[in-house]
């Protein structure tokens, strides 16, 4: 006699599991604990071996639901398909799709980047906030150019045009990684060149007129704040590294006898180690500072303790206290200053300058230069640059 909902609700658990039979191989297995499991017994095609398929639990799976699932399984069986094996295959496919989702591949790709930590955190936030909610659970193989364009458009529409371009660039890098690891066949992001509006050109505030630079250098020499900050201000124009690279400098990275600063890949924006030749003037500043901070880890320790570097606003705040406004000079401005004057005034080769700026310079064969490329010429350039700065100051 077929089961009814009333009979199921009235059934009481016994000391042993009991079967409440419905028909067609379907029954409700009532456990001593009170748990109720729908089961369906059938014989496998070809081998005719007996097998049992779980169809859910009661009351989450109602009697009507259980009968519907049983009938669907019987149709598979009639077609020569083993319902149990079919379910295993579907589950395996789901696991595979999950392992190949855009979010999984993107996080794997991100973990392999040798970026400075601050930039890694920024990219991770972009992906988590603006990409994963929309396409994170999609298999990378199934994603198309319109899928990525919709993601970028959402960012663009809120006015963050530059961020939209960067996010699209990151998505393209993830897809290239998916291709390299055998989880995608092509990169649809490549089809979106020119699809977004052009971001407004952004210039870092910088002094590039030699007369103005001389005034800045004299102001630095007269700076009355922290000695550590004053040394950072003196070195910033001579070395023209990124502000984060300067403030995170560690004594263990310097060889003052060789006049070299070797910045490891983990601290560089592009994840490539960088060598900065030091002029005699830079070494002199470093040796003077070494007396004060040389026993600690950081060249420019925080005023709040030697265990961390100086604040990212220390140099910028010092510039403001000296009277240089936001639109006039910035921490990054020392790089633009050096790039412009080394090229337009001192006449150094642009590839020497770009390499010293740690930009992606390539040789005539398209290969990236290594950290020691043109080292002899760059040493001379850095010494001439420091002497030129001295002449402007005087």
Automatic annotation (TrEMBL):
Chain ranges passing through the membrane: none
An annotated GO BP: DNA integration
Protein name, as recorded: Integrase arm-type DNA-binding domain-containing protein
Domain Core-binding (CB): 100-179
Superkingdom of the source species: Bacteria
Start and end residues of each Tyr recombinase domain: 202-382
KW ATP-binding (keyword) present: no
Family: Belongs to the 'phage' integrase family.
Species the sequence originates in: Agrilutibacter solisilvae
Keywords: DNA integration, DNA recombination, DNA-binding
GO molecular function: DNA binding
InterPro entries: CB, DNA_brk_join_enz, Integrase-like_cat_sf, Integrase_catalytic, Integrase_DNA-bd_sf, Integrase_DNA_bind_dom, Integrase_recombinase_N, Phage_int_M
Signal peptide per UniProt: none
SUPFAM superfamilies for this protein: DNA breaking-rejoining enzymes
């Amino acid at each position: 006699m077929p089961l009814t909902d009333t009979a199921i609700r009235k059934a009481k658990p016994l000391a042993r599991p009991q079967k409440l039979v419905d028909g067609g191989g379907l029954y409700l297995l009532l456990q001593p604990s009170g748990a109720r499991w729908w089961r369906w017994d059938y014989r496998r095609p070809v081998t005719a071996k007996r097998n049992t398929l779980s169809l859910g639990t009661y009351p989450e799976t109602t009697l009507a639901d259980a009968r519907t699932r049983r009938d669907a399984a019987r149709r598979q069986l009639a077609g020569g398909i083993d319902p149990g094996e079919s379910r295993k295959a579907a589950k395996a496919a789901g696991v595979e799709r999950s392992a190949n989702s855009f979010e999984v591949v993107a996080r794997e790709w991100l973990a392999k980047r040798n970026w400075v930590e601050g930039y890694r955190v920024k990219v991770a936030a972009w992906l988590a906030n603006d990409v994963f909610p929309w396409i994170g659970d999609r298999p990378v193989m199934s994603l198309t150019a319109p899928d990525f364009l919709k993601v970028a458009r959402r960012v663009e529409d809120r006015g963050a045009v530059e961020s939209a371009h960067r996010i699209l660039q990151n998505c393209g890098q993830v897809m290239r990684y998916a291709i390299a690891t055998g989880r995608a066949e092509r990169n649809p992001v490549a089809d979106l060149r020119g699809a977004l509006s052009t971001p407004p050109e952004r210039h870092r505030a910088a002094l590039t007129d030699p007369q103005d630079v001389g005034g800045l250098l004299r102001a630095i020499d007269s700076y009355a704040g922290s000695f550590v900050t004053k040394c950072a201000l003196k070195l910033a124009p001579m070395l023209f590294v990124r502000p984060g690279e300067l403030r995170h400098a560690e004594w263990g990275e310097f060889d003052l006898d060789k006049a070299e600063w070797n910045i490891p890949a983990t601290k560089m924006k592009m994840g490539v180690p960088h060598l900065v030749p030091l002029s005699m003037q830079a070494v002199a500043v470093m040796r003077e500072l070494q007396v004060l901070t040389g026993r600690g880890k950081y060249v420019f320790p925080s005023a709040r303790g030697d265990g961390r570097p100086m604040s990212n606003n220390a140099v910028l705040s010092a510039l403001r206290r000296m009277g240089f406004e936001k639109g006039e000079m910035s921490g990054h401005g020392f790089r633009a200053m050096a790039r412009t004057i080394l090229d337009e005034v001192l006449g150094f080769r642009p590839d020497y300058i770009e390499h010293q700026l740690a930009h992606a310079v390539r040789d005539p064969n398209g290969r990236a230069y290594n950290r020691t490329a043109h080292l002899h010429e760059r040493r001379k350039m850095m010494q001439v640059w420091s002497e030129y700065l001295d002449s402007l100051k005087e």
